[in-house]
Amino acid sequence: MHVRHLSVADFRSYTSAELPLEPGVTTLVGLNGQGKTNLVEALGYLASLSSHRVATDAPLVRAGAERAVVRGAVMQDGRETMVELEITPGRANRARLGRSPVRPRDVLGSLRTVLFAPEDLALVKGDPGERRRFLDDLLVARQPRWAGVRQEYDRIVKQRSALLKSAQPYLSRRARVRRPRPGAEALDPASEAASALHTLGIWDAQLAGVGSSLLYARLRLLRDLGPYLAKAYDEVSNGQSDARVSYRSSLREGTAARLAAGEVPEIPELHEEILASLAAVRDQEVERGQCLVGPHRDDVLLSLGELPAKGYASHGESWSFALGLRLAAFQLLRTDLGDDPVLVLDDVFAELDVGRRERLAAMVGDAEQVLVTAAVPEDVPAALAGRTFRVTLGSVEEVVADDA
Amino acid sequence: MYEGAVQDLIDELGRLPGVGPKSAQRIAFHLLQADPADVERLAHALTEVKARVRFCEVCFNVSEAERCRICSDDRRDRTAICVVEEPKDVVAIERTREFRGRYHVLGGAISPIDGIGPQDLKVRELLTRLADGTVTEVIIATDPNLEGEATASYLSRMLRDVGVQRVTRLASGLPVGGDLEYADEVTLGRAFEGRRLLDA
Ligand SMILES: Nc1ncnc2c1ncn2[C@@H]1O[C@H](COP(=O)(O)OP(=O)(O)OP(=O)(O)O)[C@@H](O)[C@H]1O
Ligand SMILES: [Mg+2]
Ligand SMILES: [Zn+2]
After folding, report:
1. Which of B124, B165, B141 is nearest to B88 (CA)?
2. Shared-domain flag, residues B157 and B81
3. Most Cβ neighbours (<10 Å): which of A125, A324, A381, B99?
4. Where are the annotated C4-type zinc-finger regions (chain B) (predicted)?
């Protein structure tokens, strides 16, 4: 697929901007802080309903404006679809597909992007949350219906954590003095504890039910991604040591070891395992008032040969790993869907040595559409020459070949 | 900011659910320009609803008497109770004319985030209604979302413990006119759980 046209209004630094696009490579150049990333961020938001830079929507709306609008004309199999999102911080987004208003979630899948950004280094060096997000975003890009599962699971974890916190005074063995909630009817502590335990059981079942599907989907995804990653890392780093991924589960030890070894048990078994693991940590959960088991506590171990990447890999190796993960995601989607996602390379060449630049360029050159941003045009390898736009203080203009 | 009374009105309107500051302002100025008799009627309706309407002592639906219209109707089936979250759910089910039993309004759903546990809902009152054994079927019609599902499974465990003959849950899942292919995992999963035998 490719984007034929991107428009933004009151998005980041733009009052409004129109960007006509074509298949092949398009490069956005301009000095620092002029608004190059803002444009590709808008495109990424259209594809995933989230920004690769910030977790909340407020910074996306131009300072002083109430809401931002992002619209893209997406071409797939010769058909054009208009995708539009209206972003109002603190409220639900509004979405349109063609002329019809739809739930925002329903636009997922209309546009698929794989975005490389300087922030990707956090995939290797950052918290487990970065890697969970990578997996779950890819899951949704591959099959949009997972967005609903992910949302439901997050809510279950919030509810269950809230219950653990509020039930702490009744359930904790350390708690001698009972602190009833103001306004609640006075009940004897024993029955209050029984009732809290009883409701905890309900949330355990919810967590295991939805959590097992999510876990299963992640395990399958990781199994499918592994070979692509090994190949991509090998190519980017020019045949250096082998890159591997394995799942780090918060489940009981025996199960965790099986999952780390790449086993993918069926959903009913995972369901039972989550319940058993929850039972095993019940006392700890009650003491700490936290939800300690489930996909929201998991991680992905990235390793180079025998050593974990985090804490061991050099800066350059870490970069190659991050690139490898994104490239693998691109290859997986390309093969799976029989259609190229739009590839976005935001400011990545500046971070790479010449060899890695050339190899990356060679690997993505055949994608249906590639958007590149760079502050220094010379950083972009010649292999990726294409149309160029100059971005200056919130306005975009095409650079005609002669005066480039 | 406006002068005293206008600002007070805007503030009060702004506290209503679903009314933001902008709408509050618009409604306030609409009222200022409206016919005094119209405004009088609105004010009267507001005071009346608080003075006259309360909750039915049996089912906790809204009612103008101690017992609501449905609870005091002898033609309604005494052996079936339909449990819902809010009074508006009673209205919705009544509109279908499918159900001839009585209701029980919980007053919400279990939601630890909002500090709502079973003890904050009319659960004990439900158990009291079941004590004499007249009721043989309880239909759980809480919302088909996470909190509604949690409340439903809490109730069904509870009701089985006290020995209600039949506990059923409204089927939930695929929207009529929808497309199976586009249903998300959660919806599809629930629809599967709620599958039923087809009449031969
Ligand atoms: N909500 C907003 N309202 C107004 N301006 C904003 C908003 N968010 C960001 N900006 C401005 O946008 C600019 C950053 O744009 P962007 O990140 O796209 O730069 P860039 O061209 O990619 O630069 P670099 O080459 O440094 O990566 C900053 O000057 C910032 O002040
Ligand atoms: Mg940038
Ligand atoms: Zn009643």
Report:
1. B141
2. yes
3. A324
4. 56-71
Domain CATH for B25 = 1.10.8.420
> What does pTM read for this prediction?
0.86
CATH code, domain with B129? 3.40.1360.10
pLDDT (0 to 100) of residue A173? 59
Which of A147, A156, A166 is opposite residue B146, by nearest beta carbon?
A156
Q: Is the pLDDT of residue A79 over 90?
A: yes
Distance B123 CA to ligand 3 centre (A): 15
**B90 in any annotated domain:** yes
**How many domains is chain B built from?**
2
How far, in Å, CA of B71 to CA of A300, rounded?
Answer: 58
Residues B48 and B81 in one domain: no
Tell me the pLDDT tens digit for each residue of B89-129: 999 999 988 899 999 999 999 999 998 999 899 999 999 99
- Tell me which residue in B150, B182, B187 faces A202 most closely, judged by beta carbons: B150
- Ligand 1 atom closest to the CA of A39, numbered from 1: 18
Residue A96, beta-bridge partner list: A84, A101
Q: B45 and B98 in one domain?
A: no
The A residues from 230 to 289 touching B (CB cutoff 8 Å) are: none
3-state secondary structure of B68: coil
Return the best residue to mutate from A8, A10, A13, A87 for the ligand 1 pocket (most ligand atoms within 8 A of CB): A13
Give domain status of residue B191, yes or no: no
Domain that holds residue B135: 75-169
**Cα–Cα distance between B138 and B154 in angstroms, integer?**
13
List CB contacts (< 8 A) between B157 and chain A. Answer: 198, 202
Residues of A with CB below 8 A from B122's CB?
A: none
